[in-house]
Design a protein that fits this description.
transcription regulation, 3 domains, 12 strands, Rossmann fold, alpha/beta, 12 helices, DNA-binding transcription factor activity, Lambda_DNA-bd_dom_sf, 6-stranded mixed β-sheet, 6-stranded parallel β-sheet, elongated
């Protein structure tokens, strides 16, 4: 059985006390530079790592952060996780990533698991099914630090970091209008999600600014954000079966955008000849697709970084934090041939 090296092992090998070794590794001033160097060199030689359980008993911290996202394979979330890890590991925190697969039940189970593992805090992007955050509010009220990113819960008073969804949706819809389309549908996730509300608002504002009336039948919600291919196919088919069918679609998500193109290919619908499309997507794969997709790109990596910095500041604050911030980062419109 593997037994990691301990402070006692170093102390015994060097003929020092364990307290001297501990202070040398913490670089305290009362230990001579010669002794510090001796201890550091030996610790490096035997690949010594501090015992996180021993540290957590002393500091009352696990030095770990729990992350709740819908799906790691989603390009937005994979980039956000890279941002999270770039800050967390640099500051000595481990990252435990869980996936909800857009399920409320799975989100609850994952939250319970992470809190039982005594994580120091949570970074959360809500699942598409989640319209009740009581399970998170309970933990927050008990003192577990948490920060929301992307899909946020307004009911919980803490830091939030999001992209400017309203502006991005406005720009994507305006681009379609300025390209000559007037009958623009909107394919989006579940209605209660913060991102769905904000992107619907941007879509509506663009239509209003160009004096185009909103057709409620053109707005289609996918309750699982396109996690299931059938819900995207059903929504697209309903649009195509309309007597006055749309000539373009603004799609409000990465998975939804890719799902939409797959349905078009299956139904032999040519883009943009038969139907134009613009969407929210952080996937570089879209550049390789034919046709490629005009899309709104979010600063996912930076969102992950800022959310992690916010959370670690909450975790390490010596005093209760009572004032919270909502950071909104700009999106970018990438115009391609759709």
């Amino acid at each position: 059985m593997f037994e990691p090296s301990t402070l006692k092992d170093i102390a015994k090998a060097l003929g020092l006390s364990t307290s001297t070794v501990s202070r040398a590794l913490r670089d305290t001033h009362e230990i001579s530079s010669r002794t510090k160097q001796l201890v550091m060199d030996y610790a490096k030689k035997i690949n010594y790592r501090p015992n996180p359980n021993a540290l957590s008993l002393k500091e009352r911290r696990s030095k770990s952060i729990g992350v709740l996202v819908s799906e790691v394979a989603n390009h937005y979330f994979s980039q956000a996780i890279n941002g999270i890890e770039s800050i967390a590991y640099d500051k000595g925190y481990h990252v435990i990533i869980t996936q909800t697969h857009e399920s409320y039940d799975r989100e609850k189970i994952n939250t319970e698991y992470l809190s039982s593992r005594s994580v120091d805090g949570l970074l959360i992007s809500l699942s598409a099914e989640t319209d009740d955050v009581a399970h998170l509010k309970y933990l927050h009220d008990k003192g577990l630090p948490m920060v929301f990113f992307d899909r946020v819960a307004e009911e919980i008073d803490t830091h939030q970091i999001v992209a400017n969804n309203e502006k991005g949706a406005f720009e994507a819809t305006s681009h379609l209008i300025e390209t000559g389309y007037r009958k623009i549908a909107h394919l989006t996730s579940s209605a209660h999600l913060s991102i769905s509300k904000e992107r619907l608002s941007g879509y509506s504002r663009a239509l209003a600014q160009h004096n185009i009336p909103i057709n409620e039948d053109y707005i289609k919600h996918c309750p699982h954000g396109g996690m299931f291919h059938e819900e995207v196919e059903t929504a697209i088919q309903e649009l195509l079966d309309m007597k006055d069918k749309p000539d373009a679609i603004f799609v409000a998500g990465d998975r939804l955008s890719i799902g939409c193109l797959m349905v078009f290919k299956k139904l032999n619908i040519k883009v943009p000849e038969d139907m134009a499309i613009a969407g929210f997507s952080n996937s570089d794969v879209l550049d390789l697709m034919s046709p490629s997709l005009t899309s709104i790109r979010q600063p996912a990596f930076e969102i992950g970084q800022i959310a992690t910095e916010m959370l670690i500041n909450l975790i390490e604050s010596r005093y209760p934090v009572t004032e919270f911030e909502k950071k909104v980062l700009d999106t970018s419109l990438f115009i391609r041939n759709t």
